[in-house]
Amino acid sequence: MRKTYGIQVLLILPLALLLSGCMIFGKQKYGSDYSYSGMFNKYKTFNFITHASNEDTATLKNYEVLRKFIRERLEIQGYTYTEKKPDLLVSYFIFFDDLNMKGYEQEEFDVWLAENADNGEGVKSKDPYKPIKIYMSQGTLMVTLLDQKRQNAVWQGYTSGVLADKNAESTVYLNRAVRTIFDQYRVFRQGYLRESYNHN
Description:
- It is built from five helices and nine strands; from the N terminus they run αβββαβββαβββαα.
- The radius of gyration is 16 Å and the shape is globular.
- Helix 2 (57-76) packs across helix 4 (171-182).
- The chain is an alpha+beta fold.
- It comes from Nibribacter ruber.
């Protein structure tokens, strides 16, 4: 029997507290946020959080497409999909209306991670969270990675201008949105690049 994961709204709400600054590319706005307590060099496996099943057919189809693209991207970065005790749970959602978010200004994720990694024991930092306000226009895709064991969000990426109409279908836009988001999560599973090099 296939195992799926759900999470209560109360666990999703704190994600708004992990938002950092945005970049603007044309009319598209994108950015990413991270938790200073994330153990990014320990995560190896992932699964998805189940979304509500009462969405309309078009919306559900878009979510299935997103799930496929997100899974492919994480596997390219060395993570393994598993239904048994995954390290990371992946949540993704499209906000079709305008979105006002409270967030935090942070250093670029990969720069911060390189400076704060602690020899495989996670990340230790006393950096303060600097609150900012973020406005996202219609059609914002948000992808959140949650530490399954700790049940808290550790990274979140988002981009606007994806789909403003919930009845629209566009694999091209969805694929581009996933790439935009995960280009900000430049974290390969620990040892993956070395393993790939040795195999070649």
